[in-house]
Description:
Layout: E1 8-12, H1 15-18, H2 31-36, H3 54-68, E2 72-76, H4 79-82, H5 92-107, E3 111-117, H6 123-126, H7 136-151, E4 157-162, H8 164-173, H9 186-208, E5 212-218, E6 222-224, H10 229-252, H11 258-263, H12 272-278, E7 284-288, E8 293-297, E9 306-308, H13 326-339, E10 344-348, H14 367-385, E11 390-396, E12 415-418, E13 423-426, H15 428-438
Parallel strand pairs: 1-2, 1-11, 2-3, 3-4, 4-5, 5-7, 6-8, 7-10, 10-11
Antiparallel strand pairs: 8-9, 12-13
Helix pairs in contact: 3-5, 7-9, 8-9, 9-12, 13-14, 14-15
Amino acid sequence: MRFPAGFLWGASTSAYQIEGSPLADGAGPSIWHRFSHTPGRTANGETGDIACDHYNRYAADVDLMHSLGLTAYRFSIAWGRIFPEGKGAVNQRGLDFYDRLIDRLLERGITPSVTLFHWDLPAALDDRGGWLNPDIAGWFADYATTVFRAFDDRVPMWATLNEPWVVTDGGYLHGPLAPGHRSLFEAPIAAHHLLRSHGAAVQAYRAEGHHQIGIVVNLEPKYPASSSPEDLAATARADAYMNRQFLDPVFLGSYPEELRGIFGEAWPEFPAADMDLIRQPIDFLGINYYFRSVTQHDDDKLPVRAGAVRQPGHPYTETGWEMYAPALTQVLLWVRERYGPLPLYITENGAAMYDPPKPLDGRVEDPLRVYYFREHLRAAREAIRQGVDLRGYFAWSFMDNYEWSLGYDRRFGIVHVDFETQQRTPKSSALFYADVIRSHGESLGAAT
Length: 448
Ligand code: BGC
């Protein structure tokens, strides 16, 4: 019933979603700063200018993490705070902010887990083509090296990229996320340079670092809606596009065959030497799991020609995602089966729900989110029981924050944020999670 000794109990955030003050202390603008300031791009024109004001309130936020019993905290570094132009001169005041944050975490006994890139590319690099420019692997490795030198003495766990699939699908193929392009031809090129950049940063870490480095991907298990050959083929395509597009190159050194069919004439031939760069041994894999997809053939859903089928009677979150915890166990087992028995972390897992904008009598009750966490933590425990080397769990998110183009009314936090006053209130899900942590999982009880 208990989780293994040393299991990390964490929560996650990302820089642009919580920090605010995006241009403070010499920072350069990111593509998200630009995108959110472009009319029509985000819900109600909302931006990350203030967000959770974590840039100024980080010390109290860390104290709150400590009071909940968190033993780890995953956050990202804003590349443009360190290199305002993306490359070239280092901005010491940007490093100083993360230096203070890391020290505060360590003083409170919380292990820092740092992600180098969580979508906020420096705008100056986007001006040079961003992820479409092959030189970006070198820029990213230089940025990574600077940060490793500054913090590897205190940070034991590093991730190169957060969810490269979302960057390419949302940022380059369909366009709801920055930089907002819509191009079938750009998407595989951006994906490839993201992967090369990951490989280059891992190489840089082997020269500079002494702990662990990995990558964070979002996995969405695909289940066929029927056993028809069309649905089975659509399920395989959807799985290749979303789940194997990034993991196969990293672990196996090749792209899934299905991608050629999906991208057609837009699929480029990539040099074999690139695949060697991408396939660097890594120390762990971070998995972000939110939901599964029951998949059927659909000619209108391009380019994959696969769509999701809603499951009658199943609960859905406010972002329209099915709550289905067994798929978390299955995806962890699938990763071990396909890519081998490396250490895994659940680096994000959580749910957006309707929460009151203000606490009622000082409390925020969120029973559906409690249900979501309980079922998914049990599913994680089941994977461990079946032999998966799962080393930690990070709830998304530590607090309500800027949900990208959806703005502030999609609340994912275990801590409620009143965006008018910046007051933090732990929701009942945070108190539930604190109990789980205190009992090392025992309070989860047996599966129902
Ligand atoms: C991302 C987060 C995001 C969350 C909820 C993940 O895809 O890493 O930045 O807020 O999902 O949508």
